[in-house]
């Protein structure tokens, strides 16, 4: 039986699903505590989009060069050292894919609580398990499930933006502030730490590159999927944040996670329950997207490392079922560990380090291997990304030392496991 492949639309749906999750509906509450100027906040979201677009260009070139599913694992292992590839998979297994699945499932419960249901951790676990079941049978079923919930997600985002712009501000004074203070806010450490929440919200721009072997005509369809996905999400994020600011006061939004409920609650009154319902529903696509991509990255690692080997097994439809259920189990475990903001911060920090390492591999692509930007200008892109990444990581380490050290601890544990894995491998050879 021929192994079916996905087109650019399903690949773009995966990119959009992986990107639009909990980040855009929660980050503003953390940002507005220190940044009051609307220009500063919209600039944050625009910078995040530009970095994601730069990343999409780079990953299109990397995927074209290596032609193998596995994303960061393949690029780092083949370019630097197997240790870096191993670390990328270790980080992705726990932090890159499983943590966002947990956060999305927990956020679903929070948004549905407006119906007085009091949904907690048990509901979050049930949602993850249901999505995992749909992912476990065939690529065709996974694609249909993904596409349906992504269409729902896209339609809902467009309606939210349209409503927000159509109606006059629901509160006076609202949080929209355009004056010259934005120039001073750009120099604040809080601007850099806010960027880490923004880059988390954009996480997933690289997702389609992890499954290049499942994409039909990847040289043409992968860049298309990445660019369409990233551009749509960037425009949506900038407009959504403006709408949130337009319909709520600064004091009401500060430090809050459910900012969409606050803003649209002012605008729609009791009808906000349906906004909450749709936010919860669109998060199903996020859980599905992360589970799909994460399991493929884990499978790529499992093929080459002893400790992970049991996760390489596929079913008759070439679905990595064991990897899917390992991610499911870890996501459930993470639901019982830590506070939402703590998980959010250390996840964002560690993923920024991983993205920085992966983007550095672009400097090793030879000029005659380039397929999109066939000039020396290409190498300016990873340099810009690197500069912003180091700036973000430095300030997060300074401002959030506890969460950052926890993240670095996860990396240290991965280094230990790599050498344990190598020892097991060398004993088997002997």
TrEMBL record:
Any GO CC annotation of this UniProt entry: membrane
Domain of life according to the entry: Bacteria
Main location: membrane
Subcellular location: Membrane
Annotated membrane topology: Multi-pass membrane protein
First and last residue of the signal peptide: none
Keywords, comma-separated and alphabetical: Membrane, Transmembrane, Transmembrane helix
GO molecular function per UniProt: L-amino acid transmembrane transporter activity
Transmembrane segments: 12-30, 42-62, 83-103, 123-141, 148-167, 187-205, 225-245, 272-293, 319-337, 343-365, 377-398, 404-420
The protein's name: Amino acid permease
UniProt organism field: Empedobacter brevis NBRC 14943 = ATCC 43319
């Amino acid at each position: 039986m021929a192994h079916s492949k996905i087109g650019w639309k399903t690949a773009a749906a995966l990119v959009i699903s992986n990107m639009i999750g909990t980040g855009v509906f929660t980050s503003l509450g953390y940002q507005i505590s220190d940044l009051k100027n609307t220009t500063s906040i919209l600039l944050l979201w625009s910078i995040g989009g530009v970095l994601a677009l730069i990343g999409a260009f780079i990953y299109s070139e990397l995927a074209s060069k290596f032609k193998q599913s596995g994303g960061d694992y393949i690029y780092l292992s083949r370019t630097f050292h197997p240790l870096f590839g191993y670390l990328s998979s270790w980080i992705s297994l726990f932090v890159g894919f499983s943590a966002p699945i947990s956060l999305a499932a927990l956020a679903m419960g929070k948004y549905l609580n407006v119906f007085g249901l009091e949904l907690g951790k048990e509901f979050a676990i049930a949602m993850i398990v249901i999505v995992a079941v749909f992912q476990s049978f065939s690529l065709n079923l996974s694609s249909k499930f993904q596409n349906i919930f992504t269409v729902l997600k896209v339609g809902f985002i467009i309606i939210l933006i349209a409503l927000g712009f159509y109606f006059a501000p629901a509160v006076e004074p609202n949080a929209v502030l355009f004056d010259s203070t934005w120039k001073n806010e750009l120099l604040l450490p809080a601007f850099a730490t806010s960027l880490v929440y923004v880059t988390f919200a954009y996480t997933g721009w690289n997702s389609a590159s992890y499954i290049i072997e499942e994409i039909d005509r990847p040289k043409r369809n992968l860049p298309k999927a990445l660019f369409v996905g990233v551009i749509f999400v960037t425009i949506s994020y900038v407009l959504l944040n403006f709408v949130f600011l337009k319909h709520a006061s600064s004091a009401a939004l500060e430090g809050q996670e459910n900012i969409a409920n606050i803003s649209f609650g002012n605008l729609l009154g009791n009808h906000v329950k349906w906004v909450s319902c749709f936010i919860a529903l669109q998060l199903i696509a996020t859980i599905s997207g992360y589970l799909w991509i994460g399991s493929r990255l884990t499978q790529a690692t499992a093929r080459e490392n002893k400790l992970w080997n049991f996760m390489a097994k596929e079913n008759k439809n070439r679905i990595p079922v064991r990897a899917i259920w390992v991610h499911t189990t870890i996501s459930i475990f993470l639901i019982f560990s830590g506070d939402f903001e703590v998980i959010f911060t250390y996840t964002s920090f560690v993923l920024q380090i991983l993205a920085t390492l992966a983007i550095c591999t672009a400097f090793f692509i030879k000029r005659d291997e380039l397929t999109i930007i066939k000039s020396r200008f290409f190498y300016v892109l990873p340099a810009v990304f690197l500069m912003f990444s180091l700036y973000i990581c430095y300030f997060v380490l300074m401002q959030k030392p506890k969460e950052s050290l926890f993240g670095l601890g996860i990396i240290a544990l991965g280094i230990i496991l790599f050498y344990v894995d190598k020892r097991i491998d060398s004993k088997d050879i002997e």
